[in-house]
Amino acid sequence: MIYRFFIIPLLFIGCGSVDTHLPYPLTISEEGLGAIHPDTPINQVNTLLSGFEFDKLSQVSSDRNSVILQMKRGTHPIAQIVSDESGKKIAAIYINSNLIKNKQGIGLGEPLPQNDQIRCDGPECISKNEPSVHYRINPANRTILEITFSRL
C-alpha cells in the first residue's frame, strides 16, 4: 500500500518531464542524418525518421523558395531540414540539439578535437573525411556551436 504513494507521483512526474532521449540514436554524417540523405525526397522525411514530429515551414525570398521541416521531439526542436530550390530534395540539415551526434559521438556544446583531419578557418571547421559536415565553433575553447550538413 505504501508503495502506491511513491509510484503514482513518479508516474505523473515522468509524464510531464522533458524527453531528453531520442527513440533511437541519430548520427549526422557525410551520408546525411540517420536514414535521410541528400537524394531523399523531402516529402518522405517524416516516414523515414519515425518517432519525431515535423512542422512544415516555408522560406520565401525573391531568389528562392524552399521548404523547411522543423524536426521535433515533443515540443523541443532537434533539427531543421531544408529543401533545395525545387522543394523536392534535401539541401541542408541544421542540428539544433545536443542529442544528435557525429560519427565520433560529439555533439553541440562539446569540444571539437584538434587533429590532422579537421581543418578550421576561424570559427568554421570541416573534417577532411566528411566535407559535407560543417562545424561552427567557439575558437577560444573549440566548443561546437553549430553542426550543418550541406553538399555544395
Short description:
This protein has 152 residues and is mainly beta. It contains 2 helices and 10 strands, in the order αββαββββββββ.
Task: Please outline the helices and strands.
Elements: H1 2-16, E1 28-29, E2 32-33, H2 45-48, E3 53-60, E4 65-73, E5 76-83, E6 90-95, E7 118-121, E8 124-127, E9 130-138, E10 143-150
Antiparallel strand pairs: 1-2, 3-4, 4-5, 5-6, 6-10, 7-8, 8-9, 9-10
CATH topology label: protein yfey like fold
Share of helical residues: 10-25%
* Number of separate structural domains: 1
CATH architectural name? Sandwich
Please give the order of strands in the largest beta sheet. Answer: 3-4-5-6-10-9-8-7
Count of DSSP-assigned helices:
2
Question: Quick one: overall form?
Answer: globular
Low-confidence stretches: 1-18
Distance between the termini: 63 Å
Question: Mind telling me the CATH class?
Answer: Mainly Beta
Name the features.
10 strands, 152 residues, mainly beta, 8-stranded antiparallel sheet, protein yfey like fold, 2 helices, two-stranded antiparallel sheet, disordered N terminus
Give an account of the 3D structure:
With 152 residues, the protein is mostly beta strands. It has a single domain (21-150), classed as protein yfey like fold, CATH 2.60.460. The chain has helices spanning 2-16, 45-48, and strands at residues 28-29, 32-33, 53-60, 65-73, 76-83, 90-95, 118-121, 124-127, 130-138, 143-150. The strands form two sheets. The protein has an eight-stranded antiparallel beta sheet with strand order 3-4-5-6-10-9-8-7, with no helix packed on it. A hairpin with a 6-residue loop joins strand 5 and strand 6 (90-95). The radius of gyration is 18 Å and the shape is globular.
